[in-house]
Design goal:
With about 325 residues, the chain is an alpha/beta fold. The protein has two domains: about 30-125 and about 255-320, D-Maltodextrin-Binding Protein, domain 2 (3-Layer(aba) Sandwich); about 130-255, D-Maltodextrin-Binding Protein, domain 2, CATH 3.40.190. The protein is about 40% helix and about 20% strand. The protein is built from eleven helices and ten strands. The chain has helices spanning about 5-20, 45-60, 80-85, 100-110, 140-150, 165-175, 195-200, 210-220, 265-280, 285-290, 300-320, and strands at about 30-40, 65-70, 95-100, 120-135, 155-160, 185-190, 205-210, 225-230, 255-260, 295-300. The longest helix has 21 residues, at about 300-320. The protein starts with a helix and ends with a helix. About 45% of the residues are buried.
Length: about 325
C-alpha cells in the first residue's frame, strides 16, 4: 500500500509519542554528547573560570550534554600544554583553554612546546587587569602603593599568575612608567588563581594583579581594595580609575581563548569552531560575559591564527625590553 509523505510524517510522530521517544522530525541534537576540556592551570583561576562558564552556557543552550575536565597547573600552562599535545593528538572531542598568559610563559620558560603546537579555534574574551591591595595590609590606596614602588620596587611584593604572563608584564610596565627598572620587580608567581587569592587575602604579598573577575567577590566583600585597572577605560559598573587616569601611561588586557589538539582534521576543526560560534551567539553566553565583566572579543578561523602570531612577536619584544626574556 502506498502512503503519501504527509501521512507518513503524521504516523511517525504518533508512533514516537506512543513509544515515549522524541519526534525525530523536530528534535534538535546537541553538537557534542560529551566534550572534554583541558585546563592547563589549577582550579579557581581565569582559565578555569572560562572553562566552567563554557560548560554552564553550553548546557543551558543544549549544545553539549556532558563535560569532563582535566586540570594540570604550573608555569603558565607550560606543564599542562605538553601533556595535552602529546596525549590528545587527533582527538576532536578535546579542547584546551589558553590565552595571553600562555604566550609570555612559553617565551619566558623557553618551552619546546608552545601555543604554536595546538590548533587555534577561537578567541572568546578579553579582560582588563586590576591591581589590588589586601584590606589587612598596610597600603590602602594607589598613592601609597606607587610611592612604595618608586622608593624600592624590590620591597613591594606583588602576587599574580605565572612568570612572564600578563600580570608579570603589567607590573614591569608599571615599574618602568614610574621611573624604575623592571628587573627589580618583586614578583611572586602562582600556579593558580586560588593560590594567588589566598596569598593576597593573607597579606603575604603587598599587592596583587589579575583579571577583575578573579578578584570580584573579594573586592565586593571588602577583603581586597582595588586601586587601579589596566584598561583604556573604566570597567562598566566598577568605580576604579584606570592607570592612565592616575598618570601612569600603561594599558594591558588579558585575552582568553580555546584551542584544539594538534592533528585534527578539517571536519573536526569546523565542528568545534561551529560549536563555539553558536555558543558565542547565545543568550546564555552573552549574560555570562556581562556578569563576569568580560569583554567579548570573539574571533575565529584564520584571523585568530594571525592575531596569535602577532601577539607572540609583540610579547617577545616587550619581555626582552623589560629584561624578562
Amino acid at each position: 500500500m502506498k502512503m503519501d509523505r504527509r501521512k507518513f510524517m503524521a504516523l511517525a510522530g504518533a508512533s514516537a509519542a506512543v513509544l515515549g521517544m522524541p519526534n525525530w522530525s523536530f528534535a534538535q541534537s546537541a553538537a557534542f554528547d560529551k566534550l572534554n576540556i583541558f585546563v592547563p592551570a589549577a582550579a579557581g583561576g581565569g582559565w578555569d573560570g572560562l572553562a566552567r562558564s563554557i560548560e554552564a552556557a553550553a548546557k543551558a543552550e543544549k549544545l553539549v550534554n556532558n563535560f569532563q575536565f582535566e586540570n594540570v597547573g604550573g608555569a603558565g600552562g607550560m606543564v599542562g600544554l605538553p601533556k595535552f599535545v602529546n596525549e590528545r593528538k587527533g582527538q576532536g572531542d578535546w579542547i584546551i583553554i589558553g590565552g595571553s598568559v600562555m604566550v609570555g610563559a612559553g617565551i619566558t620558560n623557553k618551552s619546546p612546546v608552545t601555543m604554536k603546537d595546538v590548533t587555534p579555534l577561537a578567541r572568546m574574551t578579553e579582560e582588563a587587569g586590576v591591581i589590588v591591595v589586601p584590606a589587612a595590609g598596610k597600603i590602602k590606596n594607589w598613592n601609597e602603593l606607587s610611592s612604595a614602588i618608586k622608593a624600592n620596587p624590590k620591597a613591594v611584593s606583588v602576587g599574580g599568575g605565572s612568570a612572564g604572563g600578563t600580570d608579570h608584564i603589567l607590573l614591569g610596565l608599571i615599574i618602568k612608567a614610574l621611573g624604575g627598572d623592571p628587573k627589580n620587580a618583586s614578583y611572586v608567581a602562582f600556579a593558580g588563581g586560588g593560590q594567588s587569592v589566598a596569598a593576597i587575602l593573607g597579606a603575604q604579598v603587598t599587592a596583587g594583579i589579575s583579571g577583575y573577575s578573579e578578584f570580584d567577590e573579594h573586592i565586593k566583600s571588602g577583603k581586597m581594595i582595588p586601586v587601579a585597572v589596566s584598561g583604556n577605560v573604566r570597567i562598566p559598573g566598577v568605580n576604579v580609575p584606570t592607570l592612565k587616569e592616575l598618570g601612569v601611561n600603561v594599558t594591558a588586557a588579558n585575552w582568553r581563548g580555546v584551542f584544539a589538539a594538534p592533528g585534527i582534521n578539517n571536519d573536526q576543526k569546523n565542528k568545534l569552531v561551529s560549536f563555539l560560534t553558536n555558543l558565542n551567539n547565545s543568550a546564555s553566553w552573552k549574560k555570562t560575559v556581562e556578569d563576569r565583566k568580560w569583554t567579548n572579543t570573539f574571533l575565529s578561523g584564520n584571523a585568530f591564527e594571525e592575531v596569535i602570531k602577532k601577539d607572540i612577536s609583540e610579547t617577545e619584544a616587550v619581555l626582552k625590553s623589560l629584561g624578562l626574556a
